[in-house]
Polyamine aminopropyltransferase (Streptomyces griseicoloratus), 555 residues
Amino acid sequence: MIEPHAPAPPGSPPPWGGPGGPLGPGAGAPAPLPVRPGTGRFLVLAGVFVCAACGLVYELELVALASYLIGDSVTQASVVLSVMVFAMGVGSLAAKRLRRFAAAGFGAVEAVLALVGGSSAMVLYAVFAWTGDWGGLWADGPRFLLVAFSLAIGLLIGAEVPLLMELIQRIRRQDAGGAVADLFAADYVGALVGGLAFPFVLLPFLGQLTGALLTGTVNAVVGAALVLGLFRRDLSRRARWLLLSANAVVLAVLATATVLADDFERAARHAVYGQDVRVAVQTDVQEVVLTGDTDGRPLGLFLDGRLRVGAGDERRYHEALVHPAMTGRHARVLILGGGDGLAAREVLRHPGVRRVDIVEFDPGLARLARHDPGLSELNDHAYGDPRVRLTPADAFARLRTTPPASYDVVISDLPDPGITASTKLYSQEFYGLARRVLAPGGRLVVHAGPVSSRPRAFWTVESTLRAAGLRTAAYRVRAGTDGFTAGPDRAAGPSHAPRDWGFVLAARRPPALALDPSGPRPHTLTPATLRAAARSATHTHVPALPASTLLHPRY
C-alpha cells in the first residue's frame, strides 16, 4: 500500500505537481480514481494494448511507404526500425523527468504521437509528389525525412513506458517485476494486433493515408480518455482544459485530413504522373496507373510509381527481350511476369507457337491488360488468343511445380534485381529451376536491368546464370526517348530514365545471338544492331563476380 506524502513545511510554496500546482498530485501519491483499483488497472493495461497497436502501425506504415516510394525494402526497414528502437531508448530516459506528472505527461505524449504518426504518411507522400526527389535529400545522402519521422515517433513511443509504469504503480503498488510483466504483456499483445491489422485490414481496405490517419485518431481518443477519464483528479482544471483543447485540435486536424484524403491523393497522383491519369487502381500487389492514350497522348503504365510501359518506347524493349530467344524451336513458351501482355504480343508474331503460358503475380494487372481499351490495343489483344493461358502465381513457386523439359523458350520479363522483392527471381536457385524446365535446345532470356548505370548488377545476373549451369550471351539495347524503366528508379522523367536495357540469353550450350530468318521482322531490331548490342555489353564486363543465391543476395 502506498504511504501518503509527508506534509510540506509550513510556509513553503506548493510543489509543481502538488495540490496548488497546475498538474495535480505528485508522483507516488495514491491515485484518486473514479473506479475500483482493479478496474482502473485493467483500463490502463487496455490503454497500453491500444497504444502499442497504434505504435506498431506507425512503424509498419513508415517501412511500407518508404519501400514503395524509394525501393529496396530491406534497407528501408533497417533504417526505420533501427532508428526507431534507438529513439525509444532515448525517449524512455527523457520521460523519467516527467514521472512526477505521469498523467499529464502521458496525455501530452499521446496527443503529439497521434498527430505525428497519423500525418506521417501524408507528409511523406506530399514531399515525394511535389518535389520528385524528396527535395534533393534522398538521392545520395541519408534519408533525412524518413529518419526524422522515425526518430520523432520512436521518442514518443519510448516515453510512454515509464509514464505508464508510474500510472500502474499509482493505482496499486506491486513489485517491479510483476508490474513490468503486466505492462509488457499488454504492450506485446497490442503490437501483435497492430502488426496483423496493418497488412490485412488497414492497408487493403483503407489504404496508407486513411489507415495512418485513422490510427492517429484512435491513438488520440484512447490517450485522452485514459487520462481525462481515469486520472482527471490528478490534473488541475487548467491542465484538463489544456489537454482537452490539444486533443480537440489534433482530432480536428486528423479528421480534416481524412475528409480531404481522396482529393489529396488525386492531386498528388497528378503531380507524380501528370494531368492525364486515366486509370488508378490499387491491386492486392501494387498500385497500377494508366496515363494518356487520349487526345493523341501516348499510353503510360506505371507499377508502384515506376513507368513500366511507355507506348513510344516499349516496342524497343520487348522486341529485344523476345526475338533473340525465339530463334529455334518455340512451340511452347513460358513468360515469367509480363502481365501487360506485351511480351506475349511479340511471341505470338512468330509462326509455330502453339502455347504461351504467362505467370503473373498480380492478376489485377492482367485483368487491366485484357480489358482496358488502350492497353489491350497496345498488346494486340494478346489475352484473347486461345493459345495464351494466364496463371496468377509467384514465378519461383510455379517453376518448382513445372515438369522438366516443358518449354522451348522461357522469357523472364521481371522487375530489376535491385528491387528487393525481385532478388530471389535473379538467384542461382531460380535459374536452376528455369534450366530444369527447358527442353533440349531450349533458351532462356532474362531482363537484367540497365547496364550503364548498374554494370555490376547486370554482370552478377550473367554470372549467376553461368553458376546455374547455363551458357550465356549478353547484350544491351539503348533506350529511346520515352524513358520507361523496368528497374528500381521511380520517376518517369528523362533525367531519371535508364539509358539502356540489359538482357542475357542463356542455354545449356552456347546460344547464338541472332534473329530467326523465317520469323517476323522486328521494327526496332536487325541482325546488325543485335551484334552491336552484344559488343556494347561486352565493353562493360565486370569479371569474377560471385553468383547471387537465396541466402546470399548480391544485388
User: Anything to note?
Assistant: Residues 1-28, 134-142, 485-495 have pLDDT under 50 and may be disordered.
